[in-house]
Design brief:
Elements: H1 8-21, H2 32-46, H3 55-66, H4 85-100, H5 106-111, H6 120-129, H7 136-152, E1 156-165, E2 172-179, H8 187-191, E3 253-257, E4 265-266, H9 272-278, H10 303-318, E5 320-322, E6 326-327, E7 343-344, H11 353-356, E8 363-365, H12 397-406, E9 436-440, E10 451-455, E11 461-465, E12 470-476, H13 512-543
Parallel strand pairs: 1-12
Antiparallel strand pairs: 1-2, 2-3, 3-4, 5-8, 6-7, 9-10, 10-11, 11-12
């Protein structure tokens, strides 16, 4: 008996029907094929007598049992970390505080740090009311991190939060410190790890040095960084010496970190040539202290040095206080190379709040002005004592005679700047913009308002407070205001390769006629010389 032939269209229709039944209308529900299969399996397993009547009930029960609701966002199983990164940093700070004093809570320990660190939370509200600052939460995290620094560096007498400078990849949190004068140890060991402190003239690794190998320079650059470089060039000292730590531009010490909880890095002392070079360039910071500073003119250092130079310029220009709060001592040591430091006036009486945000004469600078030379105290590059110069090379007699004929060199006019505690009303603006803007935090209740003074020369520098309490902060990109488009310094005059003279001046080539005339003239001269020689010989014979 032969089987009937199979219809290919029928098999295809069955496959299409099965595929249709296996499709799902909703991801949370089973397909029709699965539902009918489960229902038939249930009927065959239970074998009820009225199976046809129980089909609707069995279908509803099966749908109820296999229903999968959509995920609830409130009950969704989302992995939540036990400790967030910010909390981890905070816990590390608080653990250090608790280890320092186990008998005192962390909050109480923070509140007892007023002698070293001012309470930033008091000023956070003032800055926030004036629309300035970095927020209370971030201020508190910075406050705990500053306290951690004070415990790690016991030789720091005072610590102040300077501000925050933005970078392209990382930001800089900066604190301004004063070292103790009792000689407590610790800072000498730290000086060996200061980033950018051991840079030479070219301010980089071996690739930036003249040789390009291991940062070794020529013998002419092997000098002590603490001593001024002395060269003989008409008796003028070319390099200006760096001011000592605790004086002038290096009066304060600065630490920076990339965020609360990160490592504090001490910035090197700033040098005069770094300040003068920073005034000629305009460059954003990257956030890496070891990054090179690619600019023209070339900056003598890496980003750590450039950051320190910008901080010094900002601090010298924007650190202000109410008039009369500080007083200059009577003894003036500026002639000895030391700028007198202002002292708190014990007889100071706070001015009325209306005067603080209405009159620019009510605020003064209590930081020393940085001269164009890059120092706070003028240094004469042409001292009268000529013995200070190196005598490695002997002078020729011609040089000595020329020096004697030139006579003594003319003295250089000393640079001067505004006096200490000069009012901010005397500051010059730029491009028609005033140097400072004054406003109040409240206009409805003037008696409870705080004065906010904003620098228009250094955008991001603010000082807020009243007559008795005030604080300065900087939050910006670390760049000075420029109304016009910044233009780099043009290249200097090219060096003269040779001196023009008779032997170096180009002359036109002679013509053939000129050559014939010159040849004929030379022949005539030769004939005349021969005739003179013959006459001399005849005279000699007569003498014999």
């Amino acid at each position: 008996m032969s089987t009937p032939p199979q219809d290919p269209n029928r098999e295809r229709a069955i496959a299409d029907a099965k595929a249709f039944l296996m499709t799902r209308s909703n991801e949370s529900e089973p397909s029709m094929y699965d539902h009918l299969s489960d229902m038939l399996v249930n009927v065959l397993r239970t074998r009820p007598g009225n199976a046809l009547d129980l089909v609707p009930k069995l279908s509803n029960e099966l749908r109820h049992d296999t229903f999968l609701p959509e995920k609830d966002s409130l009950k969704e199983d989302v992995p939540i970390p036990s400790v967030t990164p910010v909390a981890t940093l905070e816990m590390s700070n608080l653990e250090v505080l608790k280890e320092a004093n186990n008998d005192v809570s962390a909050d109480d320990l923070l509140m007892t740090a007023e002698d070293t660190i001012p309470n930033l939370m008091d000023f956070a509200e003032v800055f926030e009311s004036g629309g300035v600052g970095i927020g209370r939460e971030e201020v508190y995290r910075v406050f705990t991190h500053l306290k951690k620094l004070s415990l790690e560096k016991p030789y720091l007498a005072k610590i102040r939060f300077f501000g925050k400078i933005f970078g392209l990849y990382n930001d800089y949190y900066i604190c301004e410190c004063e070292l103790k004068t009792d000689g407590e140890g610790g800072e000498e060991e730290e000086e060996q790890n200061i980033i950018g402190a051991d840079l030479g003239k070219y301010g980089g690794d071996g690739a930036d040095s003249p040789t390009g190998e291991d940062g070794e320079d020529d013998e002419r650059d092997e000098i002590d960084d603490d001593e001024p470089r002395k060269k003989k060039k008409k008796g003028i000292l070319l390099d200006i010496p760096t001011e000592d730590m605790g004086t002038g531009t290096n009066l304060k010490t600065y630490y920076v970190c990339s965020g609360p909880g990160q490592k504090w890095n001490r910035l090197p002392n700033v040098k005069p040539d770094q300040i003068t070079s920073a005034r000629k360039i305009r460059k954003y910071l990257t956030g890496d202290l070891r990054a090179p500073v690619d600019s023209y003119p070339k900056f003598p250092g890496i980003e750590a040095n450039y950051l320190r130079a910008q901080i010094g310029r900002i601090a010298a220009s924007t650190t202000i206080s109410p008039a009369g709060y500080y007083a200059v001592p009577e003894e003036d040591d500026e002639d000895a190379g030391i700028v007198p430091l202002p002292e708190v006036n014990e007889e100071y009486e706070p001015a009325a709040i209306n005067e603080l945000f209405e009159a620019a004469m009510s605020w003064v600078h209590h930081s020393s002005y940085i001269l164009p030379q890059g120092r706070c105290v003028w240094f004469d590059p042409n001292p009268e004592n000529k013995d200070d110069f190196d005598d490695d090379e002997d002078k020729d007699d011609d040089d000595t005679s020329s020096k004697a004929s030139e006579g003594p060199e003319e003295p250089i006019e000393p640079e001067t700047g505004p006096a200490l505690l000069s009012p901010i009303a005397e500051d010059f603006g730029t491009g028609g913009v005033r140097a400072w803007s004054l406003r109040r935090t409240l206009y409805i209740l003037p008696g409870h308002a705080q004065a906010v003074i904003q620098s228009n020369i250094w955008p991001g520098a603010y000082t807020a407070g009243n007559g008795s309490k005030f604080e300065s902060i900087y939050v910006g990109w670390g760049l000075k205001y420029e109304r016009e488009q910044f233009a780099i310094e043009p290249p200097g005059q090219q060096q003269i390769e040779y001196i023009l003279g008779p032997g170096m001046t180009e002359v036109p080539d002679p013509t053939p006629e000129d050559e014939e005339n010159a040849k004929a003239k030379a022949d005539d001269e030769d004939d005349a010389d021969e005739e003179d020689g013959d006459d001399d010989g005849g005279d000699d014979d007569d003498d014999d």
